Amino acid sequence: MPNDSSKPSLATLHEERNRLFLYAKQFFFEYLVATDTRDLEETHQLMRMIKENSQKIEDVEFRIKLLSGK
């Protein structure tokens, strides 16, 4: 029988989603600063980080929907 304690709880998933949203805000602010200073490499790196973080948010939200049955 699988151990259900290894699965994240709904509360844990909500906490993870909130943490990822905070990262998104931070990355976007840093992106705005980078574009203002015209640092192209930093801008591209931050865009990749924003895209990766957005995918993580989508994944967590999908897992929340599955776990909550919505």
Give an overview of the whole structure.
With about 70 residues, the chain is mostly helical. It has a domain of about 50 residues. The protein contains two helices and no strands. Helix 1 runs antiparallel to helix 2. The longest helix has 29 residues. The model has no long low-confidence stretch (mean pLDDT about 85).
Please specify the SSE layout and strand pairing.
Elements: H1 10-37, H2 40-68
Helix pairs in contact: 1-2
Instruction: Tell me the structural class.
Output: mainly alpha
What is the ordering of alpha helices and beta strands? HH
Give the termini distance in whole angstroms. 26 Å
Q: Roughly what is the average pLDDT, rounded to an integer?
A: 84
Q: What proportion of the residues form beta strands (DSSP E)?
A: under 5%
Taken from the alpha-carbon principal axes, the silhouette is elongated
Helix content: over 70%
Please compute the radius of gyration using only Cα atoms: 16 Å
Question: What ranges have pLDDT less than 50 throughout 5 or more consecutive residues?
Answer: none
Extended strand count: 0
The largest sheet, given as strand count, sense and whether it forms a barrel, is: none
Number of helices, counting only DSSP H or I runs of 4 residues or more: 2
